[in-house]
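Late entry, evening session. Most of the bench is empty. Finally got around to the prediction I had been postponing all week. Sequence below, unchanged from the version circulated by S.P.
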Amino acid sequence: MLTGYAHPGLAIIIDNTLVYWNILGIFRGLHDSREFERFSGLEIIALGHCTAHKEKLKERFPSEFIEIKVGLYLDLK
């Protein structure tokens, strides 16, 4: 799931996405979201610009967390 900057709120974005698809990972920015429980069960948590709590998420989900930086390439096959 691509979030953009997630200004509408992470719960709204996730709940609307789950109507149509299962979510395996989340990519991009989360703005100031603190809804960390919503990340349980994700395979990839790839976060970058516009994410206020990257360090907390990295600590909580160390094996799923990837910091997005310029030039990052992910093969999602």
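Two things to note before I forget:
The longest strand covers residues 25-28.
The chain has a mean pLDDT of 91.
Will write this up properly tomorrow.
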